[in-house]
Design brief:
Layout (H helix, E strand, L loop, with lengths): L9 E2 L3 E4 L6 H8 L2 H4 L9 H11 L11 E8 L5 E11 L2 E8 L8 H16 L4 E7 L3 H9 L3 E12 L2 E11 H6 L1
Parallel strand pairs: 5-6
Antiparallel strand pairs: 1-2, 2-3, 3-4, 4-5, 6-8, 7-8
Helix pairs in contact: 1-3
């Protein structure tokens, strides 16, 4: 199995999805350090130094060379040049992916997450030929559940208290979409 060809950047009407750069640090630190933003994502609240350390890893996550790898893209608003979020696509296994996203609190509610996620789903289904893309959400993250619904995902499973997450047992909701479903939306 060879790597998947990902052409970057990906542009939408309002956004540029691109590889991270070192000068993204200020924008990333703003939302990586916000307890409300990271409440449902698998990383802790980060100070600037921890965000920089993580950013250095993200600089290498720009290709999908083998299953198990994550493609991590900065979501930049074209008009301002500000990075307001991140969208992720994992090459989970043959023809399968996993979607993830996180956005700055002041950028939420503007449709940026939906616009970025749709672009990544186009990449997954139309360009990379994925058969299925899933998303895992911590129960209680209603904004992500609503977003996945707008994107055409359906809930496949509810795993009660299945994961120890940030000091507590949490319930995970598993959502998915098949390529045929994507094409019919």
């Amino acid at each position: 199995m060879s790597g998947l060809d990902v052409a970057l950047p990906i542009t939408t009407d309002r956004l540029v999805l691109r590889a991270h750069r070192l000068d993204d640090l200020g924008d990333l630190a703003r939302f990586h350090g916000d307890p409300e933003v990271v409440r449902f994502v698998p990383w802790p609240v980060r100070d600037r130094a921890a965000t920089e350390e993580t950013l250095r890893v993200k600089l290498t996550q720009t290709e999908l060379l083998a299953p198990g790898q994550w493609l991590v893209l900065a979501v930049e608003v074209r008009e301002t040049g500000r990075v307001v979020g991140e969208v992720l696509l994992k090459w989970a296994s043959e023809a399968q992916g996993e979607l993830g996203f996180a956005f700055a609190r002041d950028a939420q509610g503007r449709g940026y997450a939906e616009e970025a996620a749709r672009a990544v789903l186009r990449l997954a289904f139309d360009d990379l030929g994925f058969h299925r893309v899933s998303a895992v959400v911590v129960e209680g993250n209603e904004a992500s559940v609503r977003l996945l619904g707008r994107l055409g995902f359906r809930q496949e499973a509810r795993h009660a208290e299945a994961v120890h997450f940030k000091g507590a047992w949490v319930t995970q909701l598993v959502f998915a979409q098949l390529a045929d479903e994507w094409r019919s939306t």
